Structure to design on (285 residues):
């Protein structure tokens, strides 16, 4: 049985140290700003990104991982004797999976499998971690895919944005478009469903929105035996800490098997805007 590498992308933005030593390779999407192209998480980090965003007269845009970047990575891993499972941001949010397919076609007959996470951030990350762990335990490539499928079916992403302006401008607003008319009066609770951003509820204040988010989380994890939780934020670390504390208090440490926190990557922050806070959860892992 061959060794297996997991290829993913920078929208995960794994918490520090989580993938150290694991055969998980993250390829950067791109942030395009004032005619410059920055590799997400390499040429531009979250802190620098949000600091610049506060005073910039122009707004950034984003682009998918290039087919060339995939081709280079696949070539190196294949030469090193790896089979490859390439797991990426939802195809309904980015063309990254299309780039991966173009690169895969350059290696006919090679053991490269592509997988649509239908998610992003640690929703994607939990799938990549689970597939890599299965590989470490001796699973075949198809068994790793089955593991990723299980995690995908048991993972959710919930978040609150300060404004829908950034999602609207980037074309990722999905089912939240119905809220646009009252965008300045509402704090929408959003979630990823079938790979798309959908509106789950709306309230008048950020604090009420976070409370409602926890109510929705409670319903979605009901009936499961355990949950892993990752608080995510866009330049709102303190709010993410408070959210995590409230979740731990509500659900208890016996039900929550692991907690972590991460800041969303500049590419994701381009579309959510600063102040976004949310949670990624994975049940029964």
């Amino acid at each position: 049985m061959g060794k297996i590498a997991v290829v993913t992308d920078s929208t995960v933005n794994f918490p520090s140290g989580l993938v150290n030593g694991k055969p998980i390779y993250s390829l950067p999407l791109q942030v395009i700003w004032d005619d410059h192209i920055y590799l997400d998480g390499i040429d531009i980090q979250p802190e620098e990104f949000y600091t610049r965003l506060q005073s910039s007269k122009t707004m950034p845009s984003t682009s998918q991982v290039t087919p060339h970047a995939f081709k280079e990575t696949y070539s190196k891993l294949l030469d090193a004797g790896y089979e490859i499972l390439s797991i990426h941001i939802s195809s309904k949010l980015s063309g990254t999976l299309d780039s991966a397919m173009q690169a895969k076609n350059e290696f006919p007959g090679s053991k490269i499998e592509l997988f649509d996470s239908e998610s992003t951030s640690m929703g994607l990350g939990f799938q990549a971690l689970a597939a890599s762990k299965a590989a470490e335990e001796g699973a075949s490539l198809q068994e790793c895919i089955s593991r990723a499928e299980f995690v995908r079916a048991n993972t959710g992403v919930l978040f609150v944005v300060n404004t829908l302006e950034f999602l609207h401008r980037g074309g990722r607003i999905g089912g939240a478009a119905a809220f646009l008319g009252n965008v300045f009066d509402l704090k929408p609770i959003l979630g990823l469903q079938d790979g798309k951003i959908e509106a789950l509820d709306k309230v008048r204040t950020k604090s009420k929105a976070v409370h409602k988010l926890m109510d929705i989380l409670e319903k979605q994890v009901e009936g499961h035996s355990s949950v892993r939780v990752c608080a995510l934020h866009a330049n709102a670390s303190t709010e993410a800490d408070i959210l995590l504390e409230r979740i731990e208090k509500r659900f208890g440490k016996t039900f929550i098997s692991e907690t972590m926190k991460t800041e969303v990557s500049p590419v994701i922050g381009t579309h959510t805007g600063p102040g976004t806070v949310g949670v990624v959860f994975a049940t029964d892992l």
